[in-house]
Amino acid sequence: MTSSPRFSEDAPRLGADALKARLADIxxxxxxxxxxxxxxxxxxxxxxxxxQEFALHWGKVAARSDxxxxxxxxxxxxxxxxxxxxxxxxxxxxxxLDAYDREGLRAAVAALxxxxxxxxxxxxxxxxxxxxxxxxxxxxxxxxPLRIAGGDxxxxxxxxxxxxxxxxxxxxxxxxxxALAALLWxxxxxxxxxxxxxxxxxxxxxxxxxxxxxxxxxTLRLAARLTRELPGxxxxxxxxxxxxPPMPDAAHxxxxxxxxxxxDSLAWLPRLMPQAPxxxxxxGALRPALALQVRASRVAQxxxxxxxxxxxxxxxxxKGGGGESEIALQIDAAAGEMTIDGEVVALPPDGAAAAQSxxxxxGAIPPECLTPAGPGEWQPTQRRGDGPLATLETQADAVxxxxxxxxxxxxxxxxxxxxxEVPAGxxxxxxxxxxxxxxxxxxxxRRFEALRGExxxxxxxxxxxxxxxxxxxxxxxDRRGGAEASERVFMRRQRDERALAAMFMVDMSGSTSxxxxxxxxxxxxxxxxxxxxLGDRYAIWGFSGWTRTRCELxxxxxxxxxxxxxxxxxxxxxxxxxxxxxxxxxxxxxxxLLRQPARHRLLVTLSxxxxxxxxxxxxxxxxxxxxxxxxVEARQQGVRSYCVTIDRHGADYLKHMYGAASYTVLDDxxxxxxxxxxxxRKLAT
Length: 685
Hints:
Elements: H1 16-26, H2 38-45, H3 49-63, H4 67-83, H5 86-103, H6 105-113, H7 116-120, E1 125-126, H8 131-142, E2 147-151, E3 156-157, E4 161-165, E5 167-168, H9 173-189, H10 197-202, H11 207-229, H12 234-241, H13 249-255, H14 262-272, H15 288-316, E6 329-332, E7 337-340, E8 343-346, H16 349-362, E9 398-404, E10 409-421, H17 429-436, H18 438-449, E11 456-461, E12 466-467, H19 469-480, E13 490-494, E14 500-507, H20 515-534, E15 537-545, E16 551-557, H21 565-572, H22 583-594, E17 600-607, H23 621-636, E18 639-645, H24 651-658, E19 663-665, H25 672-684
Parallel strand pairs: 2-4, 10-16, 14-15, 14-17, 17-18, 18-19
Antiparallel strand pairs: 1-5, 3-4, 6-7, 7-8, 9-10, 11-13, 12-13, 15-16
Helix pairs in contact: 1-2, 2-4, 3-4, 4-5, 4-6, 5-6, 8-9, 9-11, 9-12, 11-12, 11-14, 15-16, 18-20, 18-25, 20-25, 22-23, 23-24
């Protein structure tokens, strides 16, 4: 989260027009609530420029979570800046946002009104404010993604998540968090966990006491190793070690040796066991049961992925004929390469990642990984992630060609599409959105109802429920004048049915996590409310995926589904998932559209970025060209396509994919809910 802009005390304050424009920009989505924004203008008008900028900056940040928090943050900012330093005032807003995330609006408002509480917590660093930095730091160390979680149970790891104290006080708080995170990573990297560790600790007579002492001994060993290999951490590590309880000097020197291992730490345990370990030691605790469980699941998954990579490479080289025992195989995890009978080949990206992960966990690639997992091409249909292995899926719901712009031809039956249903989410989510944006939804519905048009009156009909008086008078006049009178003296009213079917394709890739995902869900609520008033046929599907072998489509609302509680709960459960391979979803949803009995068909994509996928050539120009080709195919079959994106660089590639007049780039994710409905209204007119 960025700090507020800095201005000197004598910088000219913002004038009335500038202040009102900035406030209007912040509360863009709240223009019809009736809230008194003149009060905010009065609170800021006479403040120095620095305080004005602080209030506007943090009010805008807070309003992204909730308009009420943003309003109150601006209103109270002058008082906060009187009682607190600028840094403390920033923590004041952040603490309120943290309270909102954990407990809701009431807690956030209470935190904002208790300005003095921040002064009492001077120097406290919350894990949420440094999570992103620590995550990047750990991935740089490990080569694989590790998560950060805050808690109240000290520091520990299950080898996949680093659990750190939720808050650390005092000078150098970030360095302390960083040192703790490094020590937890080192537990996995340098062998603090092994298969028999639980039994070894239990043999000491008191497993809990033994685990506590072993954690301290391992802290000595790992800190010494990190100091040698990562000297930039030396100062932070020494500051952390200074808080350790007294340990035998011999233990310090023994565990600081370059050859020291877990066995050396275990050798010291019997000497320390008679003493009670210190309570609440601020170092990395050992939880071997959890760590070994998570590691075993990851090793099994990595082994399967690597064996499939081996099978694919051997098949490509014509060496999969059943005589694998005679083939010399060797894997270099660091280089991401495999040697097959003396020939060096590169592992597929996911296979290379699996090899590196196994090397980190086990110290070597186990022999069973060199046995191909069945014949045929590598099919990474399982995601690398948490939990036990899922059943390997091989039967896709649909298979599609993919355009290879390098070849100028299709790769046949290349992409496997799996159809999913979004699970039921919060039953109250849609109702809360409708209540929060009720005035806007009413306004949108009125505009959409106008699209239905009035009934047409068909005059001079041969039959009908009403008499056409003008035609009747003319017929009587003709008869009196000697001419043959017309029998078409009736009229009827007719309302033309709109023959349009619309498909909305919603990006559920990992990059939509956070504000984008929330804006997408709110946009879907407003869109459904509007389209129900219009009466058009419409469907909503989410898309994501993981390589060409797992292109996933998530049913939110199909054409046959009513906009009922089930659909509302699926909207509530829309969440960020994996990657953005756009060609296969476009091709499949186009086929669903073509089955609809409509004269006009529209495919609208809501996305936050360019086509992308994990670890293969789809990333970059290849993906853009395949998506463009899928849209060309749709247009040739009578489907009109449009894209709404919040990618500010979207103009660089969207014109090529969709055409100059077939996309909209929004400069602010907050505008998405309003703009999607308005864009559809224009497209459907």
